[in-house]
Design brief:
- This protein has three domains: 126 residues, Galactose-binding domain-like (Jelly Rolls, Sandwich); 42 residues, no CATH class; 100 residues, no CATH class.
- It is built from two helices and 24 strands.
- The strands form six sheets. Strands 1, 10, 13, 16, 17, 18, 21, 22, 23 and 24 form a ten-stranded antiparallel sheet that branches.
- A hairpin with a 5-residue loop joins β19 and β20.
């Protein structure tokens, strides 16, 4: 079992324009429901009142503006899996992590292929293109011949050349006319232990499912979060290291996964741990770690 601890981004460039909505202008009057962007903070705001003039969104207390979220340019780094950027173009981002990042995770991918290129001091250290066709639906000869192409929505890379100051370029090739992605995570890969049988996956659904006074179902579809309970083994001498690492992540979203070669198990989750337990024994310690994914 491993975890990618996200690294702060020192710099970012992209071909995605920041043109979601008009930029906020001090002398413009905005109607209720009008949206603007603030380029300095890379955020989208919505007016909550009519005759909205001269009230800066970034300093408002919620009387005139409400924050909608990040602009498309910065959505892949806003820690929200349900808020994807979708454009009619091939999209690319080049990021420079603050420290050494040897792991990369992509979520909500809508692309036919992904190219990852890492450069440092003008030299190319890594350059690979991945076809992310999802063939898990092919289970027999019939499904082989009737399979409709589908693309994997997740991708994890480890063992990247994590040199300080290196630039990581991620380019997504479109599926048809559109390309989309929810989140890009770069950071250090840390091993927690060896994953065991008994690791379980599920979801927490935030949809409303009720019945009215006549018994008719009332369903309001909302977002859901992935959940995973990891069972893993480690030497008791690793307990202090693992506890220290997890303690540092108690309020930080990270990418937890069984192994980079086992993403088809569905046990990859980007989120927070809610609880962990490490029994100390003379032989191997069998630990439990519960993760709740981001929405």
């Amino acid at each position: 079992m491993k975890v990618i601890v996200p690294d702060p981004i020192a710099s970012l460039t992209t071909n995605v324009p920041e043109d979601d909505y008009p930029a906020w202008a001090n002398g413009t009057t905005y109607a209720s429901g009008a949206r603007v962007i603030t380029a300095a903070s890379h955020q989208v705001w919505q007016s909550v009142q009519a005759a909205n003039t001269g009230h800066s969104p970034t300093t408002d207390d919620g009387t005139w503006w409400v924050l909608v979220g990040a602009t498309d340019r910065y959505k892949p780094f806003d820690a929200k899996l349900s808020d994807a950027v979708t454009r009619q173009m091939n999209m690319s981002w080049t990021v420079t992590p603050v420290s050494r990042a040897d792991g990369l995770a992509l979520f909500g991918v809508g692309a036919s292929s992904v190219n990852v290129k890492i450069t440092a001091s003008g030299s190319t250290l890594y350059d690979q293109t991945f076809q992310i066709l999802d063939t898990s639906a092919i289970v027999d000869w019939y499904s082989f011949f009737t399979y409709e192409p589908e693309y994997d929505t997740q991708m994890i890379l480890t063992g990247l050349p994590g040199l300080a100051g290196s630039q990581i370029a991620i380019t997504l090739q479109s599926v048809g006319a559109f390309t989309s992605i929810s989140e890009i995570v770069v950071g250090r890969v840390n091993r927690l232990g060896t994953s065991l049988e008994g690791t379980s996956i599920g979801i927490t659904d935030y949809s409303i499912k009720e019945r009215d006074e006549w018994g008719n179902p009332v369903i309001v579809q909302r977002a859901f979060a992935d959940t995973t309970t990891f069972q893993f083994e480690m030497p008791p001498t690793d307990a202090r290291r693992v506890k220290t690492l997890l303690s540092r992540l108690r309020a930080t979203a990270a990418v937890y996964f069984v192994d980079e070669t086992a993403t088809d198990l569905g046990a990859t989750v980007f989120g927070f741990f809610s609880d962990f337990d490490i029994p100390l024994t003379h032989g191997s310690s069998f630990a439990t770690l519960e993760i709740e994914g981001l929405v």
